[in-house]
Amino acid sequence: MSHEETAASLPEGNPASDSFTDALFVSSLRRVERLIPVLAIIVSLILSLKAGWILALGFLAGAAVAFVNFRSLKSTVKAVADAVIQSGAHASKPSVVLRFLMRFVLIAVAAYVIFLSYPVAFHGFLGGLFVPVLAILAEAAYVVYLAIRRGF
User: Fold this and answer.
1) Angle in degrees, 0-180, between the axes of helices 53-87 and 119-128, rounded to the nearest 10
2) Mean pLDDT over residues 99-118, rounded?
């Protein structure tokens, strides 16, 4: 989504309004979700040239686990929010809790297998887990740019 499309899709008005905040949040979440794989590929290509393909593959594996974790967290938060809205009280279904815990099991199993098989790739794997943080920082910089450009 280009800058013009993003700016056009956001409602005008008070930045504290609910519709503005919701639109900004949805568009930011979509951009972060698209940016994670792009950053993972770019960084892994640079790593393969500078540090070797084993480290780059470990990084790519960590980024893949982080991406799955990010999407799982997004759906878990949505499921919990839907459950709270529907029941009006704090409610959690066992399936939501299980999905939440399975994210950590996935990370632990992948890290253990990589650590035992390729210790060098393990360092890349740990770095790859932070790709969502890099994507969120890039998105934060973009949102600040939009705010400055719009005069907020």
Assistant:
1) 40
2) 82
CA distances from 33 to 69, 116, 134, 136, 148 (A): 11, 30, 12, 9, 24
Name which of 59, 77, 80, 70 is nearest 31 in CA terms: 70
Virtual CA dihedral for 148, 25, 107, 95, nearest 10 degrees?
170
User: In terms of residues, how long is the chain?
Assistant: 152
Q: Which long-range contacts (CB under 8 A, 24 or more apart) does 107-112 make?
A: 107/65, 107/69, 110/61, 110/62, 110/65
pTM for this structure? 0.70
Rounded to 5 degrees, what are φ and ψ at 9?
Answer: -80, -15
